[in-house]
Amino acid sequence: MADGKTTASARRPSGQRRADAQRSIDRILDAGLRLYTSRPGVSVAEVAAAAGVGRVTLYGHFPSRTELAKALLERAFAETEAAWREVDTSGPADEALERVLREQWHLMERNRNLRDNIIGDVSPQWLRARHDPILKRIEDLITRGRDDGAFRTDLPLSWLITALYSLVHAASDEISAGRLTTGQAPDVLVASLRSLYRP
């Protein structure tokens, strides 16, 4: 350096710097997920302030709003996938699918504002692709139900999965528009899919 001195950060061992950086990232993601799921229209500056870091620090870890949005979605989906594993999917496939939708609705509802905040930052294709691990589990349930005669087989499997994906987001949009309540949504969603999937 020009003055022959090093910064406090540079004097710390590299392992300590990495640990400090990871703590900063964790604070940003914790604050971002908390804010993004609470209401629409959250700014990057608000996330930085809630995390207790400057915008320069935030952008040092996440160079764009898109990168931040993707990181927040990754964390939200990791939590959703972990919660899925706790749901009992044994027994008849139609009952298991309804159980999944009802027990996971609180996470779908939590992610409604998250989706509103990031919808302009990531492409619909990226968002759909990131759902693939969860949708694969849905596919397994639907396939089992088709084999057992609980679900229709005259429509493509991919269409049945897309219909579920679309209806979940439609329910979220209806809640945001005030045409559906969070209490009504699980019943409406289950009834709609029951009708659609019935042989």
Automatic annotation (TrEMBL):
It comes from Glycomyces albidus. SUPFAM superfamilies: Homeodomain-like, Tetracyclin repressor-like, C-terminal domain. Residues 43-62 bind DNA. Gene3D superfamilies: Tetracycline Repressor, domain 2 (1.10.357.10). Residues 1-21 are annotated as: Disordered. InterPro entries: Homeodomain-like_sf, HTH-type_TetR-like_transc_reg, HTH_TetR, Tet_transcr_reg_TetR-rel_C_sf. The keyword Transcription regulation applies. Residues 22-80 form the HTH tetR-type domain. Keywords: DNA-binding, Transcription, Transcription regulation. The lineage of its organism: Bacteria, Bacillati, Actinomycetota, Actinomycetes, Glycomycetales. It holds the Pfam family TetR_N. The keyword Transcription applies. One of its GO terms (molecular function) is DNA-binding transcription factor activity. This is TetR family transcriptional regulator.
